[in-house]
Amino acid sequence: MSEIEQVIEDYVLGWNSSKPEDRLLLMKKVLAENCLYLDSHLPKPVDNIETHCQLIESFREKFPEISLQLSTAPDSHHGHFKLTWKMVTKNGDVFLGGNFFGEVNQQTKITKLVGFVDKK
Q1: Which CATH number does the domain housing residue 59 bear?
Q2: pTM exceeds 0.70
């Protein structure tokens, strides 16, 4: 497994964590402190780890039965990556799907993550 694949796997683990303190630890492991997260559903970019975790917590409070899964293995080169994801219910139904495009720094921490949601 490449370093970027491990970072993505840890990001997904953090996203799916039911404990905010565990999520924060994992996100501190994989996100640069000033990581920029952009998503068409957000009014403005998220620009730090704590706000990123708050965004996930807010989603998980609304949809506690939903988990994030990778639909494809990450593809990466030159510090950039892309992947397809899906959000799935406990019984396996796809709730949402989309893509992430991102960048990592020299320490293989995510510095930018751009999310796209597929239209249903």
Answers
A1: 3.10.450.50
A2: yes
